């Protein structure tokens, strides 16, 4: 009998009786939480998270989202205590060490949780050692010279919860007035004064199970994030390139702004994030999106495939410092360590990120037919924001670009460290509850665009029952690397002979 079958059996009955719905739900929530926790811890250890805690929990694959989210957050909140307790108690053998994330979850439930009937082999294993775990916890408190667990947790702080709940209406499926009426049946709702399709609800409202969220009629997306696609201003019928597209909220927003007309090429390098991007686009109902699994930096601006691209949205990897609280980064194991080593290590990381950001922005500005480029980050650091813009201004000018001013009525602009900083846009983590940066480049109308309009037409994207239909293919140029290992680490999932742009929402 396989592991999943054994777990299902354990979840169906115990001691000759059938389990209650609460017991069955708790059983599966612990296992879903363990899967999410494993991905969170692995990503945190590599500093290359596939997604935030929230995005991983609220992905379509997780069924019991509320219970899973609570278990993951609370286990992370108590993470170092749980690890120390298990180490002191010395109860895990080789078999259970291989499922350590599940053991962390169960240990949380035994020591700090509700302790709803803990059914399952690993639960039974740890329950038989409950006394040893409690003794280890008591020893830990003594060793830290505190009397209560709360004293150990004193340094842990959650976000203040005062941030409004923003939702963006997906106008491909629903109009704003209908969304207002539907949401207004249960909550106080108002329109945002700057982003046309954005609605504001009171803080703390959980909409993850709302029918309009589940069917893709509305997206839970912050105001600053929603400002990015609007700043780019694509028109219906344009061809647009979303350079670093996953998880896809901005891609879906672009499609809505374009009324589902034209074409969006959504580029993403990470294989796991490509799946997340595909799910988001599918949910949005956008039929004018193609997904390109590959590195934006290796796209050739002179390739006929991109000769009609008129706008590029570039939201590259960044430190995420502006949305750390919203993403619950303070719960990650690396967060505490960062406080001790943020100096040199943090500066080095920012420099590496900025070098990548400069390279991608310069590349975006080199596409010959492009008229508008938006660069955005969810960072508060000048290194990733104004310094990047300042460094590429000469390159931008050589291609005929100048800074445009997104949202002229927005009060917070760029830091005054370069000429034209008033054209840059910032949101503040305190005032606006999230820190974002947006820069808009607009090509001068009198600047000649070389090679534009004389290339082969790209095959149009049409509805098709064949979800795996290839739209186009191109040769791929491999950067020169010193070792095979370097190549695999940097680009492990690419086909080095050809890169296929695949229709989104594909099934084998």
Question: What attributes characterize this protein structure?
Answer:
single chain; 508 residues; alpha+beta; ten-stranded mixed sheet; four-stranded antiparallel sheet; 18 helices; 16 strands
Describe the 3D structure:
This protein has helices at residues 3-12, 21-46, 53-57, 65-77, 79-89, 94-97, 100-111, 121-127, 130-143, 149-152, 176-184, 211-214, 223-232, 249-257, 271-284, 333-364, 386-398, 484-490, and strands spanning 13-14, 17-18, 165-169, 190-191, 198-201, 218-219, 239-242, 263-268, 289-293, 309-314, 372-377, 401-404, 425-426, 437-443, 470-475, 498-503. It has 18 helices and 16 strands. Helix 5 (79-89) crosses helix 9 (130-143). The protein is elongated. The two termini are 28 Å apart. By secondary structure, it is α+β, with helices and mostly antiparallel strands. Strands 7, 8, 9, 10, 11, 12, 13, 14, 15 and 16 form a 10-stranded mixed beta sheet that branches. Strands 4-5-3-6 form a 4-stranded antiparallel beta sheet.
Helix-and-strand structural type:
alpha+beta
Radius of gyration: 25 Å
Percent strand equals 5-15%
Helix content: 40-55%
What's the total count of β strands? 16
Shape summary = elongated
- Poorly predicted residue ranges: 1-9, 155-161, 336-345, 451-508
By DSSP (H or I, 4+ residues per run), the number of helices equals 18
How far apart are the termini?
A: 28 Å
Task: Please outline the major beta sheet.
Answer: 10 strands, mixed
Instruction: Please tell me the overall pLDDT.
Output: 79
Looking at how many chains there are and whether they match, the oligomeric state comes to single chain
């Amino acid at each position: 009998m396989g592991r999943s079958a054994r777990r299902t059996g354990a979840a169906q009955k115990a001691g000759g009786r059938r389990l209650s719905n609460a017991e069955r739900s708790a059983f599966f929530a612990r296992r879903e939480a363990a899967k999410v926790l494993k991905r969170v811890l692995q990503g945190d250890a590599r500093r290359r998270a596939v997604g935030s805690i929230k995005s991983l929990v609220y992905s379509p694959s997780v069924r019991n989202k509320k219970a899973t989210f609570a278990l993951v957050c609370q286990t992370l909140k108590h993470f170092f205590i749980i690890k120390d307790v298990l180490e002191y108690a010395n109860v895990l053998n080789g078999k259970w060490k291989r499922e350590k994330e599940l053991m962390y979850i169960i240990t949380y439930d035994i020591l700090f949780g509700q302790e709803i009937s803990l059914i399952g082999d690993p639960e039974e294993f740890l329950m038989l050692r409950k006394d040893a775990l409690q003794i280890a916890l008591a020893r830990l408190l003594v060793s830290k010279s505190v009397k209560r667990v709360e004293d150990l947790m004193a340094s842990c702080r959650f976000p203040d919860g005062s941030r409004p709940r923003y939702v963006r209406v997906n106008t491909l499926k629903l109009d704003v007035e209908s969304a207002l009426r539907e949401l207004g049946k249960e909550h106080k709702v108002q329109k945002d004064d700057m982003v046309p399709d954005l609605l504001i609800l009171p803080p703390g409202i959980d909409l993850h199970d709302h029918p309009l969220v589940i069917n893709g009629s509305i997206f839970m997306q912050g105001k600053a994030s929603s400002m990015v696609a609007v700043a780019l201003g694509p028109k219906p019928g344009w061809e647009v390139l979303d350079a670093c597209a996953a998880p896809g909220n901005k891609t879906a927003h672009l499609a809505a702004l374009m009324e589902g007309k034209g074409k969006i090429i959504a580029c993403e390098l990470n294989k796991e994030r490509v799946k997340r991007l595909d799910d988001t686009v599918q949910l949005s109902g956008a039929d004018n999106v193609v997904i390109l699994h590959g590195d934006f930096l290796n796209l050739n601006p002179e390739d006929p495939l991109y000769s009609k691209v008129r706008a590029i949205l570039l939201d590259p990897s960044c430190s995420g410092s502006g949305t750390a609280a919203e993403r619950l980064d303070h719960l990650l194991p690396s967060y505490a360590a960062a406080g001790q080593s943020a100096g040199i290590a943090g500066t080095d990381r920012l420099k590496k990120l900025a070098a990548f950001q400069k390279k991608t922005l310069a590349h975006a500005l080199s596409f010959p037919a492009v008229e508008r480029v938006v660069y955005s980050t969810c960072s508060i650091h000048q290194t990733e924001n104004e310094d990047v813009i300042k460094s590429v201004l000469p390159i931008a000018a050589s291609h005929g670009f100048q800074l445009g001013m997104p949202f002229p009525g927005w009060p917070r602009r760029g830091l005054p460290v370069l000429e034209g900083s008033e054209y840059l846009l910032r949101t503040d983590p305190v005032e606006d509850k999230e820190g974002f940066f947006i820069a808009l480049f607009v090509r001068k109308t009198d600047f000649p665009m070389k090679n534009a309009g004389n290339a082969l037409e790209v095959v149009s994207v049409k509805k098709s029952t064949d979800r795996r239909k290839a739209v186009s293919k191109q040769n791929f140029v491999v950067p020169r690397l010193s070792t095979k290992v370097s190549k695999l680490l940097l680009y492990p999932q690419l086909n080095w002979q050809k890169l296929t742009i695949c229709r989104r929402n594909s099934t084998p």
